[in-house]
Amino acid sequence: AQKITQTQPGMFVQEKEAVTLDCTYDTSDPSYGLFWYKQPSSGEMIFLIYQGSYDQQNATEGRYSLNFQKARKSANLVISASQLGDSAMYFCAMRGLTGGGNKLTFGTGTQLKVEL
Amino acid sequence: DAGVIQSPRHEVTEMGQEVTLRCKPISGHDYLFWYRQTMMRGLELLIYFNNNVPIDDSGMPEDRFSAKMPNASFSTLKIQPSEPRDSAVYFCASSPDTSSYEQYFGPGTRLTVT
């Protein structure tokens, strides 16, 4: 079984600042993938970034980077140079890569508000 | 590509009525997922298909819920009879195969059962 914990129900950040959204996970699967999705107020789920458990380097996608600390079982999302359009709900998710299946387990999300 | 298509986008129905939600996955994607999102329970996987075959339906809440995938380009999620506690946003998602990273989500169907 997999479990994702996001302890920050809400976060505020000023425009152009960096922000870190926390995510910790628990799994018995030796190989797994970690994901971040963005859900703006319009409701759609937008894939942001992926990190494999055996990837040597932290994933980056434009202004998004994933601070992966395997020993601590954490996969924090860092958004640099925040923009007003970054205001949204952010979900951390994971799935096991062994044992078959393609199920994503989601955390409860963090509501990010970017302020002027 | 048009992305994952869901219909209807909004559905309001009375308790006891049958509700059918529809999904068209991205062409070529072998996996299709149905999720439910509520404030209380967050995002939950209900069922997923691989090559039109249901693989894991352990998340389907009860017998009132059923899902089908008659072909590679169409899936339905049916609730019969519907209850107010079924009110939620239902997402359909698809992905190419197990080696792919992300699942591509549709816009969701907002269901309200009165």
Notes on the protein architecture:
The complex is a heterodimer of chains A (116) and B (114). Chain A is mainly β and 116 residues long. Chain A has no helices and twelve strands. In chain A, the strands form three sheets. In chain A, strands 2, 5, 6, 10, 11 and 12 form a six-stranded mixed sheet that branches. The mean pLDDT of chain A is 93. Chain B has strands spanning 5-7, 10-13, 19-24, 31-38, 42-50, 53-56, 65-71, 74-79, 88-95, 104-105, 109-113. Chain B is globular and about 40 Å long. The model of chain B has no long low-confidence stretch (mean pLDDT 93). The termini of chain B are far apart. Chain B is built from no helices and eleven strands. Chain B has 114 residues and is mostly beta strands. The A-B interface holds A 33, 35, 37, 43-47, 50, 91, 97, 100-109 and B 31, 33, 42-43, 45, 48, 50, 55-56, 89, 91, 93, 95, 98, 101-108, 110.
How many β-strand runs of chain B?
Answer: 11
Give the largest interface pair and sizes: A-B, 21 and 23 residues
The total of beta strands of chain A comes to: 12
Q: Give the uncertain stretches of chain B in residue-range form.
A: none
Helix content of chain B: under 10%
Q: Any idea what the radius of gyration of chain A is?
A: 14 Å
Helicity range of chain A? under 10%
Separation of the first and last Cα atoms of chain A:
41 Å
Major sheet summary line of chain B: 7 strands, mixed
β-sheet strand percentage of chain B:
over 45%
In terms of per-residue confidence, which ranges of chain A show pLDDT below 50 for 5 or more consecutive residues? none
Instruction: Write down the overall geometry of chain B.
Output: globular
Q: Which structural class is indicated by helix and strand composition of chain A?
A: mainly beta
Q: Tell me the radius of gyration of chain B.
A: 13 Å
The number of distinct helices of chain A, counting runs of at least 4 residues, comes to 0
The major pleated sheet of chain A works out as: 6 strands, mixed
